[in-house]
Design goal:
The structure holds 2 protein chains of 2 kinds. By secondary structure, chain A is mainly β. Helices cover 0% and strands 50% of the residues of chain A. In chain A, the strands form 2 sheets. In chain A, strands 2, 4, 5, 6, 9, 10 and 11 form a 7-stranded mixed β-sheet that branches. Chain A is globular, with a radius of gyration of 13 Å. Chain B is built from no helices and 12 strands. The radius of gyration of chain B is 14 Å and the shape is globular. Chain B starts with a strand and ends with a strand. The chains are: A mainly beta, B mainly beta. Chains A and B meet through strand 4, strand 5 and strand 10 of A and strand 6 and strand 11 of B.
Amino acid sequence: DTGVSQNPRHKITKRGQNVTFRCDPISEHNRLYWYRQTLGQGPEFLTYFQNEAQLEKSRLLSDRFSAERPKGSFSTLEIQRTEQGDSAMYLCASSWGQGARYFGPGTRLTVL
Amino acid sequence: AQTVTQSQPEMSVQEAETVTLSCTYDTSESDYYLFWYKQPPSRQMILVIRQEAYKQQNATENRFSVNFQKAAKSFSLKISDSQLGDAAMYFCAYRSAEGTYKYIFGTGTRLKVLA
């Protein structure tokens, strides 16, 4: 068990480009969560999956954001037409049921 | 809507001393969970301690303990015998016991440990 992994760790992109992040949860975990953390703030909830079903989405998740977890294992978060306000750390976490939630190291996005 | 407030942006403590980090929250729910997470520089968040609202007994994990005051909606973290490795951002988080599974985090407290 290597914990939650996220790739890439850093991404620099130009405004208007699309980006995709990947999260690999702990293998037996059925729940997966995405959060966004901006400088000086705590993480903000974006969305949550139980297995492959996306059960909850925050209002923060605009139409430019989409998340998938196609086989109930890894998940991807895509941001289309990136804006400078999208610059943040994107965190993924996983858990088995309501057990302890384990966070990944995050993907830091910088939009120029 | 629930809110979590951490009013101390930064705290310092001498090595081997004790420090208390404050957290208050607002909710109309009676059943919920509270957490303290630690985020070391450039490293991932890890769970420090967890408290169920229905439990009156304060949670303890080795050098870490909480003072949970449900009526006052206060949830402070006490770190005893502080170590250099305790230096990190500490986040307080709230989760409802039903319905949503999202955590609501405070803005964090940066803890510095002085040698």
